[in-house]
Amino acid sequence: MRAWRNQLGNEQGVALVLALMMLLALTGLLLGFLSVSALEPQISKNVADTARARYLAETGIELGFNILTTTGAQTFDPIVTTAPSSCSTSCNPWVAMITNGTLSGVTSGGSTAEANFAGSYNVVVRNDFLASDQKLSGLTSNDAAPNSDTNGVVIMRSTGTFNGATKTIEVVVKRGQLPPFPGAVNLPGVQTDTFINTGTFDIDGRDYGCSSNCDTASNWTQTGASAAHPNKYGIASHSGTQSNISTAYETNIENAVAGDATKLPDIKGRQQGGTITSYTTGLATIAPDDSLSPTNLAAYLQAVANYSGTTVLQSTQACPMQLTGTSTPTSTPTLSNGCGVNETLDLGTRTSPKLVYFRGDTDPTSQFTGLQLNNQIKGAGILIVEDGDLKNLGNFTWDGVVIITGGYVGAGFMSGSTTTIRGALVANETQAGEANGYFEFYLHGSANGFTVHNSKQNIDMVSLARGNHTITNWREL
User: Fold this and answer.
1) Mean pLDDT along residues 239-244
2) How many domains does the chain have?
3) Does 144 share its domain with 209?
4) What is the rounded distance in angstroms from the CA atom of residue 82 to the CA atom of residue 62?
5) Is 209 part of any domain?
6) Binning pLDDT at 50, 70 and 90, where does residue 436 land?
7) Band of residue 22 on the pLDDT scale cut at 50, 70, 90
């Protein structure tokens, strides 16, 4: 009995058992660490490859956006018209824009590092024709067919691929839809006070275009009136009566030239009541047309002002903005306000039109000049001056659309100035109570020259301004 008890108390060999147990546990841990260490590089590689695939997809979005901003006129039809005319669940409505794009093609020639970056991106686009697309675009309605864009909205996808990893980004691209411009000069607001005291002007609603060397004024020639290139009115207002003088808006404009036979031949365009190909001069081409209204103009301005890429330049009564050119016409004049702003502003060219937006202060005295133009200035695109007068004291040439809008505003072309606008001019007064003696459209008697020619070519061109486009609803799929 004592021997059995002695055996129970014998601890010899326990260390070996414990050592074997610890070795087994450590071996398991070591194998676990080795397994994790083998997986971590692969996990890191997958994360890195996915990130690079995302960067490639983002590259495709940017390059696809650049293509869209230079495509078509008011809509993106040149791209989406290649899609099927109708689409069932089995149809593929996507149209390829970029196939197997690489970073070596992003810059001219591409660098060695770019060429060795083994990845690609593919970009496709489709029209917003599905009922569910309204949730993406934010619009209350969408287009009816996959091959016809009427609202300037498309859906674009870019898929980046790197070492087998893929990433897809989807966005909505919108083009600001310009309101119609029924006249060469348009006064759609609630006041149309007009002063024309010069015999040197040319307001022409017939269509003008240019095929080459378009900086030369003589190269802009008339296009035959047709459904595609209709004659516009010389000066257009909207219908109705100006409340402070109980006179029709149209008549208020006509009173500025009625009775002066020297001025009447200088207002040209579509004949009131005639067909789009009809032509006349004088009072018969000053006409009401409600296609351009304060409502649709305000909707357009609100849309472009809210675009993330739009820079609104603030002009205040204490610090009014001025653009000062040089001794020869320049599209990069100096912007200043006497309060510290002194910089160069790019007003665009015909190959790169700009959206230039000035916002001022509402001034019930009608004394505030939101933007003054000095010396020789030229530009192309859309020039907007809101809540302040535009006054030209120099030599100003603009290809596109010039819009002056807001309360107590006007477009003034002053003594010594020379103005050429090829596209459309809009002066939109939103306040009905402006005092007499202040004009929405003012031509000084000593102006050297004033020309506004309707140009469908330039109105189509300004819709391609990058600032007239926006990307929304960015999401990764």
Assistant:
1) 95
2) 2
3) no
4) 22
5) yes
6) confident
7) confident
132 and 214 share one domain? no
Same domain, 303 and 398: yes
322 and 198 share one domain: yes
Among 148, 175, 202, identify where a domain stops: 175
- Residue 312: closest CA among 261, 387, 248: 387
Residues 6+ apart with CB under 8 A from 110: 102, 103, 104
Question: What is the rounded distance in angstroms from the CA atom of residue 178 to the CA atom of residue 265?
Answer: 30
Average pLDDT over residues 161-177: 92
Q: Indicate if the pLDDT at residue 140 is higher than 90.
A: no
pLDDT at 365 > cutoff 80: yes
Domain final residue, candidates 175, 204, 219: 175
Domain that holds residue 453: 183-466
**Which of 86-95, 196-205, 328-337, 416-425 has the least mean pLDDT?**
86-95
One domain, residues 318 and 457: yes
Same domain? For 205 and 159 the reply is no
